[in-house]
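=== RUN LOG ===
request id: a7f3
mode: sequence -> structure
chains: 1
length: 255
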Amino acid sequence: MPLRYIFKQLMLPPGGLLLLLLLGWWLRQRAPRLAALCFIGGFGGLWLMSLPIVVEWAARAVEREPALEAAQWPDLAARAGAIVVLGAGREQADPAWGSDQPGYVALERLRYAARVAKVSGLPILTSGGLHYGQPPSEAAIGAQVLQEDFGVATRWLEERSRTTWENAVYSARMLKAEGIERVVLVTSAAHMPRSRWCFEQNDIEVIAAPVGFVGVPNGRPLNGWLPEVKAYWQNGMLLNEIVGMAVYPLVYAAD
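=== RESULT ===
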């Protein structure tokens, strides 16, 4: 398991907040005031992360790319050379299917890519590598779902990437070899700003086709001020993108 994964899980919620609570417990006698701040920060962070209203506020800042209107789909073939759909994890050994399956977010992207491909006629590239080194790749799983469930063939499989940056690097090499320099990029709305930046850094122009917007009215009781498990996951995803957008230019700009 990559060390970067362990570090990421310990730093981002809930890992970082739980470590803050643990630090507060350890400091409770040595430094009571600092311990109190740690407890307040830890519990406060856990509470805020669980609120749908925080999802709504945070997503409005992260989901900067507008949706690609359906009226534009038929004209995409004149503007781009391919559809690139990015992987988003997999569920291992699903008993219902007898094999690995795309995760919820990945399936959402695949469905959208299939619909756009059918209308536009553009070929598809699926991008996503192995899960901790274990086959099949996310790209292969995505291609299988596109073919068997949506009746859409995949022309290219990018099966080496482990990060969004590598999605762009390896996809760009395959596309440029085919003379393609502009693509319709399908990924989650919150993930689109970072994804666009990565592809454009690799000299691929992007027509954004975001899906899975969460920065919409939450429709929950009390306007989203009650804690909810789903909100915790969504806020974690948004925080991951906020950190990623801050770190990626520092790490990859020189590349």
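=== NOTES ===
The longest helix spans residues 229-252.
The chain has a mean pLDDT of 94.
=== END ===
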